[in-house]
Design brief:
The protein is of the alpha/beta class. The chain has 8 helices and 11 strands. The structure holds S-adenosylmethionine.
């Protein structure tokens, strides 16, 4: 397993996963009777939480390392109503979902050429009236205020993780390349150093709207990520996309 995935939960130990699940319940009505499709499960931090309050969860994670980490997490949490697939959603042999969710920028991982297929596959797997929720970087706001170099330090369970972030924003290119370089200090171990590169694809609201409408979603709205009761504005760097299928 590559070190980025091994240390992912330390890196995001301060992320409020519970609040994402509450936002899903509030905006989509997901609850005890819901069958939920999760796209991009990562290490399973949302997956096992969703399993605790929904009837059934099907999670998709196509990265082999994240898939292994998620499988281990679900087993440790005894999440028997969560089924994990490595299969891309376009080939997923499951349908009839009440709600679908793509938490933490998963939509930004989807390159433009794959967008229609990805969103179309979600639409096909939702029941009529099914709902979709995702949080993602918003192209318009990122263009106004591109990401900068920064260093973050995280601590969890005696581990100290230093993350240097070097972003490369392609103006007008709708893409941000993030070069991460890490140093991990853990008691009794030599310092571990490794790199990871992420490529994020930015969507404008009109592009999202057109793609979701073409996939059969009739109601589409954007909320500010920090306060999901507020409509997103042009400076909302991260947004919630909420869409309802006809
Ligand atoms: C930033 S991580 C978020 C993981 C998790 N949702 C969380 O909040 O910790 C994005 C995840 O989406 C996964 N991913 C990217 N493209 C995907 C796709 N087409 N289908 C399923 N998963 C995908 C990546 O492998 C990665 O694990």
């Amino acid at each position: 397993m590559r070190p980025f995935v091994r240390h992912y939960d330390t890196l995001f130990a301060d992320k409020d996963y519970d609040s994402d699940v509450v936002t899903l319940a509030t905006l989509t009505g997901a609850g005890a009777t819901s069958r939920v499709l999760e796209l991009g499960a990562g290490t399973g931090s949302h997956s096992h939480r969703l399993g605790r309050f929904c009837r059934e969860v099907v999670s998709v994670e196509i990265d082999a390392d994240f898939h292994s980490a998620c499988a281990a997490r679900l087993q440790a949490a005894d999440s028997r109503n969560v089924t994990l697939y490595a299969t891309p959603v376009e080939e997923l042999p499951e349908t009839g979902f009440d709600v679908a969710a793509a938490f933490f920028h998963v939509l930004n991982y989807i390159p433009p050429a794959a967008r229609a297929g990805f969103v179309g596959a979600i639409g096909e797997r939702l029941v009529a009236g099914g709902r979709f929720l995702a949080d993602l970087w918003h192209a318009e706001a990122v263009e106004r205020d591109p990401p900068r170099e920064e260093t973050r330090t995280k601590r969890a369970g005696g581990v100290r993780l230093l993350q240097r972030i070097s972003p490369r924003y392609v103006p007008g290119g709708a893409e941000v390349e993030l070069d991460y370089s890490f140093e991990v200090e853990a008691p009794g171990r030599p310092v571990e150093r490794f790199d990871e590169r992420l490529r994020l694809h930015l969507w404008t609201r009109p592009a999202l709207e057109a793609t979701f409408r073409a996939a059969g979603f009739s109601h589409i709205e954007f909320r500010d990520w920090r306060d999901s009761r507020r409509a997103a504005g042009s400076v909302s760097w991260r947004v919630w996309l909420y869409a309802r299928k006809s």
